[in-house]
Amino acid sequence: MKRIFIILCLIAMMFSLFACSLRGSDNGTNNMGNGSLSFTFDAAGNYTGFDNLPQNYTIEQAIEDGCYVRKGASGEVGGDNWRYFIENSNNKKDTAIRIMCIFDDATFYTDLFFVDGSYRIFDSSSEDLSDREYKYILELSGRMPNAERDSYFAILTDDETLTFDKVVKSSISSDSVEIRSISPYRLIFAGVV
Questions:
Q1: Is 137 helix (H, G, I), strand (E, B) or coil?
Q2: Range of the domain at 149
Q3: Whole-Å CA distances, 168 to 62, 164, 171, 174, 177
Q4: What is the pLDDT of residues 31-82, one digit of tens each?
Q5: How far apart are CA 32 and CA 3, in angstroms?
Q6: Number of C-alpha atoms within 13 angstroms, CB side, residue 188?
């Protein structure tokens, strides 16, 4: 169990994951407390949505603002906000969500958008805030090798046929051929049931 948790944590850090959810408007812009979640970019093409993150932002404030909060690999708050985002994007409505991830003493944010028929994701801990489009969001679940409990992932990809087993195999493999054998994807978050 401990090994699975460590693997999930490494996967999480490797892909700079997790996020907080905001109920989307039709133009992809959401008001959020003291700032706003908006699909905006600077002159160099970098996402600027993290410029006004509230300081000392609490879980309670995040939930009130419509965020989806992830605490470690198994804790979540605001699951209704996540479902709202999924429902809107499945219905092809422009929408946005911020995911707040609390991992040990660090807090990260991921802003996830469905805009003009594509998914876009930006991570507050990443230096690369350029725009990249993905066609699909997949929620995958299954059992990792030697695990006692099931795990799940939410990913963005251009390949709707990706499976839990393919993602896990490519994530834990040291074989570069194996890793390159599946379509690129971007991990949003991972957890255990």
A1: strand
A2: 2-192
A3: 30, 6, 5, 12, 15
A4: 332 234 788 999 999 999 998 888 888 888 888 888 999 887 667 888 888 9
A5: 37
A6: 29
Is-contact 22 37, C-beta < 8 A?
yes
**Residue written as tokens 């490519």?**
170
Instruction: Please list, residue by residue across 98-120, b when 16 or more beta carbons sit within 10 angstroms of its beta carbon and e when fewer do.
Output: bbbbbbeeebbbbbbbbbeebbb
At position 17, the amino acid (one-letter code) is: L
Domain count of the fold of the chain: 1
Six token digits for residue 154:
């939410």
SS3 assignment, position 188: strand
The answer to whether the CB of 52 falls within 8 A of the CB of 36 is yes
Kindly report, residue by residue over 103-138, the tens digit of the pLDDT: 888 899 999 999 999 999 999 999 999 999 999 999
Per the structure block, which two tokens stand in for 131?
């725009």
Burial of 188 (0-12, 13-18, 19+ CB in 10 A): buried
Would you state the structure tokens that stand for residue 117, as one six-digit string? 């028929």
Secondary structure of 54-110 as H, E, C letters: CCCCCHHHHHHCCCEEEECCCEEECHHHHHHHHHHHHCCCCEEEEEEEEECCEEEEE
The residue behind tokens 């419509």 is 66
* Opening angle at CA 64, ends 56 and 9, nearest 5: 60
